[in-house]
């Protein structure tokens, strides 16, 4: 991760207006605005988000801000410009660094800093990013946050309020494909549908369980087909037969293995 302070040339105090985070492997940009961000000093393209009370700018609008500050990809003499700057291909991040994020429309520029240079406000904000997520029944998610909290997030009202989320409401399989946005900035379903970490944190209900507790549960209470066969002192073929007869219910199935709750396996021994 690379971090840049966004500053204004005309500001004698050299105040950091915002911070740009770049995740190199995934090539994703995110902008974080201060809690006390001034609407008049905030870059115009981001001011509408600020009016809505948003301090974390999603990857889409962050990328748009970057693209406005570099040579456009459809520039007629692009090949020559890239060659003159020692670039083999069009790279938004490298072009941003070369220009220091300066453009003719305003006097903003970017300056690279380390994470240690971030104010405490932003270091604290990073602790609310998403570490892991598990889909639950009823359009809910179990969300693990970087600060150690685990929250149950009921998404039905959020999904119902936006037509774009209708595929998630109508298709449970699609809903279960939930993933984590780069940097933990929220959860997502592909590149088009996402819910921010801030929304999840605000609306979620704290579960009295730590991530360490959950990991311990998985390590101790989830077994494979081979382990199930060993516990029941039978063959894997017997395990498959129990599944076919609906006497065992795998919680996850793959072409090579199945996972079970250890409690269900042990209960077979009681019968």
How are the elements arranged and paired?
Blueprint: E1 2-8, E2 18-23, E3 28-32, H1 44-51, E4 56-57, H2 59-67, H3 78-84, H4 92-99, E5 108-113, H5 120-126, E6 130-136, E7 140-145, E8 150-154, H6 156-160, H7 166-170, H8 172-175, E9 179-180, E10 186-189, E11 193-196, H9 197-203, E12 205-207, H10 211-221, E13 222-224, H11 225-232, H12 236-244, E14 252-253, E15 258-261, H13 262-270
In brief:
The protein has 271 residues and is α+β, with helices and mostly antiparallel strands. The protein has helices at residues 44-51, 59-67, 78-84, 92-99, 120-126, 156-160, 166-170, 172-175, 197-203, 211-221, 225-232, 236-244, 262-270, and strands at residues 2-8, 18-23, 28-32, 56-57, 108-113, 130-136, 140-145, 150-154, 179-180, 186-189, 193-196, 205-207, 222-224, 252-253, 258-261.
Describe the structure.
By secondary structure, the chain is of the alpha+beta class. It has helices at 44-51, 59-67, 78-84, 92-99, 120-126, 156-160, 166-170, 172-175, 197-203, 211-221, 225-232, 236-244, 262-270; strands at 2-8, 18-23, 28-32, 56-57, 108-113, 130-136, 140-145, 150-154, 179-180, 186-189, 193-196, 205-207, 222-224, 252-253, 258-261. The chain contains 13 helices and 15 strands. The model has no long low-confidence stretch (mean pLDDT 89).
Rounded Rg = 24 Å
Tally of helical runs: 13
Strands, total number: 15
Spatial sequence of strands, sheet with the most strands: 4-3-2-1-5
Based on the model shown, name its key terms:
single chain; 271 residues; alpha+beta; NE0471 N-terminal domain-like; Multidrug-efflux Transporter Regulator, Chain: A, Domain 2; five-stranded antiparallel beta sheet; four-stranded antiparallel beta sheet
């Amino acid at each position: 991760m690379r971090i840049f302070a966004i500053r204004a040339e005309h500001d004698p105090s050299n105040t950091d207006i915002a911070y740009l985070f770049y995740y190199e492997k995934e090539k994703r940009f995110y902008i974080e605005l201060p809690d006390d961000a001034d609407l008049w000093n905030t870059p115009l393209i981001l001011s509408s988000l600020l009016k809505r009370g948003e301090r974390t700018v999603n990857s889409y609008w962050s990328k748009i801000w970057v693209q406005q500050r570099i040579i456009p990809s459809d520039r007629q003499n692009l090949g020559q410009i890239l060659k003159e700057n020692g670039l083999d291909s069009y790279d938004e991040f490298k072009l941003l660094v070369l220009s220091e994020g300066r453009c003719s429309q305003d006097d903003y520029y970017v300056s690279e800093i380390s994470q240690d240079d971030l104010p405490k406000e932003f270091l604290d904000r990073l602790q609310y990013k998403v570490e892991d997520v598990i889909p639950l029944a009823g359009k809910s998610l179990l969300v693990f946050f970087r600060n150690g909290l685990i929250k149950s997030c009921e998404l039905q009202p959020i999904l119902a309020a936006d037509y774009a989320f209708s595929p998630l409401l109508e298709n449970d399989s699609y809903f279960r494909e939930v993933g984590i946005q780069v940097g933990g900035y929220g959860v997502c379903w592909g590149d088009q549908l996402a819910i921010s970490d801030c929304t999840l944190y605000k609306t979620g209900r704290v579960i009295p369980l730590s991530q360490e507790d959950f990991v311990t549960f998985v390590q101790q209470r989830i077994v494979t087909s081979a382990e199930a066969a060993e516990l029941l002192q039978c063959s894997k073929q017997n395990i498959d037969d129990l599944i076919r007869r609906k006497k065992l219910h795998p919680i996850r199935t793959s072409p090579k293995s199945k996972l079970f709750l250890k409690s269900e396996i042990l209960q077979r021994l009681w019968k």
